[in-house]
Amino acid sequence: MTVRSVSIFTAELPFHAPFRISLSVMTGTTNLFVRLEASDGSVGWGEASPSPSITGDTAASMAAVAPRLARTLLGREVADLGGAHRAMLLEVPGNPTMRSAFDMALHDLAARKAGLPLFAFLGGARRVFQTDNTVSLDDPDTMAATARRFLKAGFRAIKAKVGTGASDDIARIRALREAIGPDIPLRVDANQGWDVPSAVRVLTETTECALEYCEQPVLRRDHAGLKAVREAVGVPVMADESVFDAEDALALARADACDYLNIKLSKSGGLWVGRQIATIGQAAGMACMVGCMSETRLGLSAAAHLMSALPIIRFADLDSHVDHVVDPVVGGIEIRDGRVYLPEGPGLGARPSEDFLASCPRQDIEA
Q1: Which residues form the catalytic set?
Q2: Any domain includes 202
Q3: What pLDDT is stored for residue 79 in this prediction?
Q4: Is the domain of 109 the same as that of 206?
Q5: 234: how many CB neighbours lie within 10 A of its CB?
Q6: Averaged pLDDT for residues 311-326
Q7: Domain span at residue 65?
Q8: Do 230 and 193 fall into the same domain?
Q9: How many domains does the chain fold into?
Q10: Region of residue 337 (left: phi > 0; alpha: psi -120 to 50; beta: else)
Q11: Residue 281 is assigned to a structural domain of this protein
Q12: Is residue 31 in some structural domain?
């Protein structure tokens, strides 16, 4: 079974409210859906969600490289997942987000061919797990109110964006802990917003808040800084922007720079590399998380299938779809009371609705 046609759909997805991190503010996202049709008529879907401040990818850059990536797959055996990864990486060494969408669609097709849900195709059996919900960066009172709202919606773990200044961040963390009580896991993500002294100050002065971990406190290439923070405080350190691929994960492991790794498909180039990162984490004793950019439930479903398959993935941050005004996906994961439920059926178990796609610009790519 080979890939015989490729189509790209451009989807405009506004948010209910602006979402702020230390690096940027987003009011919506322009995602690209990839449709691969195989020689037997079956269809696989993928999704690319750009994050310019993290990956450098934009909707325009993704659209520009999509035809080149598509042509590396046309005529290729669907089961050749490793070969497809290598071919795409050679054709477009950057742009991991667009490569991720094609990789996702190929995995969808391969699992469909096997007649298995993607998690089972990958060797997994975990069908339900907990996710956090992420509080946008704001003043302490607003963030506390948002966290309380998430608890009322059933979430039982809170992640909060910080990273704009030590004093302000200390106030935010304390307000959040007071709002959610002592028993709810609280995680913070600075998105590279601190230097080492600021990170140490914030994490030391909020010891009583019992943070579960701190994500990416310093600049992505500052492995020594990550290690310095880790050694100075009692809060586990998670690498996010510091780990794009397996080479990054190996470098972090060799440097003993962090406790945890955040795997994001749009950052790593897809499931193939996500599995490599998790394998290195397993060997190095670094537990992993699956995170997200601004994907719909289609992209989040792929990440959820990966978590199901790999026990080393301990944490989930699969919440981006709740920001979207429109849910364009049929099937896919469901979140109830803060728990992720994987879809039934073969492959991803998710696709964009035909009605939604009818409103999206479409590009058909030929060999």
Answers
A1: 161, 189, 215, 240, 264
A2: yes
A3: 96
A4: no
A5: 10
A6: 97
A7: 3-115
A8: yes
A9: 2
A10: left
A11: yes
A12: yes
Last residue of a domain, one of 62, 93, 115: 115
Residue 33 CA, chain-centre distance (Å), reads: 16
Count of all residues that appear for the chain in the document? 367
Q: Which residues contact 231 (CB under 8 A, 6 or more apart)?
A: none
For residue 353, the tally of other CB atoms under 10 A from its CB is 13
How far, in Å, are 36, 161, 220, 341 from residue 216 at the CA level? Answer: 35, 11, 7, 28
Q: What does the alpha-carbon distance between residue 230 and residue 252 come to, in Å, rounded to a whole number?
A: 12
DSSP state of 347: B
Q: Work out the angle at residue 23's Cα, subtended by the Cα atoms of residues 235 and 214, and round it to the nearest 5 degrees.
A: 5
Tell me the backbone φ, ψ of residue 242, rounded to 5 degrees.
-75, -10
Same domain for 213 and 133: yes
Report percent pLDDT > 90 for the chain: 98
Name the one residue in this structure whose structure tokens are 């979402």.
19
Same domain, 170 and 214: yes
pLDDT exceeds 80 at position 1: yes
Q: Which of 169, 191, 185, 189 is nearest to 132 (CA)?
A: 185
By CB atoms closer than 10 A (0-12, 13-18, 19+), residue 248 is buried
**Which residue from 284, 9, 285, 262 is spatially nearest to 134, judged by alpha carbons?**
262
- Same domain? For 149 and 243 the reply is yes
Following DSSP, what letter does each residue of 215-256 receive, concatenated?
A: E--S-TT-HHHHHHHHHHSSS-EEESTT-SSHHHHHHHHHHT
Q: How does DSSP classify residue 137?
A: S
Say if residue 195 is in the same domain as residue 138: yes
DSSP secondary structure code for residue 359 in this structure: T
Q: Read off the tokens for 252.
A: 């972090």
Instruction: Out of 115, 133, 167, pick the residue that ends a domain.
Output: 115
pLDDT higher than 70, residue 39: yes
Average pLDDT, whole number, for the chain?
A: 97
